[in-house]
Amino acid sequence: MERALIVKQPYADLIMSGQKVLEMRSRHTNVRGRIGIIPKGSGEIIGTVEIVNSWDYTGEDGLKGVGGQTLHCVESKDWHLLDKWCFGWQLSDPKPFEKPVKYNHPRGAVTWVRLAH
């Protein structure tokens, strides 16, 4: 695993539980494969997940409906955020760690953290 994604709570835990299979972002990602998941501000990697695809949902009302909510877990009160966060990174095969792993957070890292081997 070369990198980890910083995710707000409760979404990081929802990803690790397998409930959240679309991580909504403001742009596509070309990253594929296994990555770590870091709850924002925690200083810990709580598990890994596979990024298998990146989809453009610009203008797609389907993500704001009940079916879409089961994929991205964004509550209806926050659906206005999907106008900006309209790219879904498709996730699969979450593997939560038994014990979170500490890492050194590089200055300025907001979305991704490159991990030392």
Overview of the molecule:
The structure is a single chain. The chain has 117 residues and is mainly beta. The chain has a single domain, classed as Hypothetical protein (Archaeosine Trna-guanine Transglycosylase, Chain: A, domain 4), CATH 2.30.130.30. It has helices at residues 11-17, 66-72; strands at residues 3-7, 22-25, 33-39, 44-56, 87-102, 112-114. Strands 2-5-4-3-1-6 form a six-stranded mixed beta sheet. Strand 3 (33-39) and strand 4 form a beta hairpin. The protein is globular.
| Total discrete domains | 1
* Helix proportion range: 10-25%
- Secondary-structure element order, N to C: EHEEEHEE
Q: Could you name the CATH class?
A: Mainly Beta
Mean pLDDT: 91
Structural category: mainly beta
The total count of strands amounts to: 6
How big a fraction of the residues is strand? 35-45%
Indicate the CATH topology: Archaeosine Trna-guanine Transglycosylase, Chain: A, domain 4
**Radius of gyration based on Cα positions:** 14 Å
The largest β sheet comes out as: 6 strands, mixed
- The shape, in one word, is globular
Spans of at least 5 consecutive residues whose pLDDT stays below 50 are none
The CATH homologous superfamily is termed Hypothetical protein
- The first-to-last residue Cα distance is 8 Å
Examine the secondary-structure arrangement and name the CATH architecture. Answer: Roll
Side-by-side strand order of the widest sheet: 2-5-4-3-1-6
Task: Output the number of helix runs.
Answer: 2
